[in-house]
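Inverse folding, one chain.
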């Protein structure tokens, strides 16, 4: 790592943790994690500076003759450069070391002030973040388990109770029609499973014949819901046509207009004429 990059990293982190380093800073219960993180990062920066310092000193030692006192011919410029930069790295190391001492003193004060809380306190923001992540993981696992459940309802081995490894979910072979458990498909799959069935069909786990046989043996309301998930654009358009027809029917049967233009929610204008007797 170059000296400039090391210095930039140290200075950037010192700015971020500057609030904790202020003498008049009042510690809060949520500062335990911040202090631990700041101490760890500052120690890492100290080690990087230590490595940089060692490299400079090792290089500088190669500029001297065997006696270790006299410089080799033409190496004065490199030696002066090394001396200058060694001094700047040592100064930066001293600064980081003092900051580490300050942070460790703050940590001791924190542990005395908030005894028993530093390991248990979690901020509301942290809780929300962790709960959101856990909720996504739980939802993903729940969906995976439900897909596996629906798959094993649909697929059965006619010759043996157990499925061969090649047909276990996810299958390594396309499921043939002979392995479809039509009785279970007809009785054990419901409307709530329609999205999962559509996913299995779209994943091409089943042959065309097996997929057709599955759809044929589904309950009508389940089959309609599966088609809705497989072809949402067709059902979406049909839904809005139905909305327009219903809006027109309501306008036609209202009593307070003769000629009117009514606009449905999706922007379609319905013009109707009605003659009062």
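Residues assigned per position:
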């Amino acid at each position: 790592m170059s000296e400039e990059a090391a210095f930039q990293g140290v200075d950037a982190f010192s700015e971020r943790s500057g609030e904790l380093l202020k003498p008049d800073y009042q510690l809060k219960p949520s500062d335990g994690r911040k202090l631990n993180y700041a101490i760890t990062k500052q120690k890492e920066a100290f080690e990087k500076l230590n490595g940089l310092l060692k490299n400079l000193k090792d290089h500088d030692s190669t500029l001297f003759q065997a006696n270790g006192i006299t410089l080799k011919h033409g190496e004065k410029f490199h030696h002066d450069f090394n001396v200058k930069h060694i001094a700047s790295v040592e100064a930066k190391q001293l600064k980081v070391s003092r900051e580490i001492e300050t942070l460790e003193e703050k940590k001791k004060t924190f542990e005395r002030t908030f005894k028993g809380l530093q390991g248990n306190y979690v901020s509301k923001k942290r809780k929300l973040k962790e709960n959101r992540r856990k909720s996504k993981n739980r939802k993903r696992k729940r969906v995976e388990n439900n897909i596996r459940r629906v798959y094993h309802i649909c697929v059965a081995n006619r010759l043996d109770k157990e499925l061969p490894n090649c047909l276990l979910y996810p299958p390594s072979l396309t499921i043939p029609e002979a392995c479809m458990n039509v009785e279970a498909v007809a009785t054990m799959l419901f409307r709530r499973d329609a999205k999962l069935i559509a996913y299995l069909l779209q994943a091409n786990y089943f042959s065309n014949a097996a997929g057709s046989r599955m759809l044929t043996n589904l309950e009508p309301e389940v089959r309609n819901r599966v088609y809705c998930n497989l072809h949402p654009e067709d059902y979406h358009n049909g839904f809005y046509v139905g909305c327009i027809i219903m809006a027109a029917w309501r306008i036609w049967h209202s009593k307070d207009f003769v000629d009117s233009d009514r606009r449905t929610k999706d922007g379609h204008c319905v013009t109707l004429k009605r003659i009062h007797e």
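The longest helix spans residues 76-113. The chain is about 65% helix and 5% strand.
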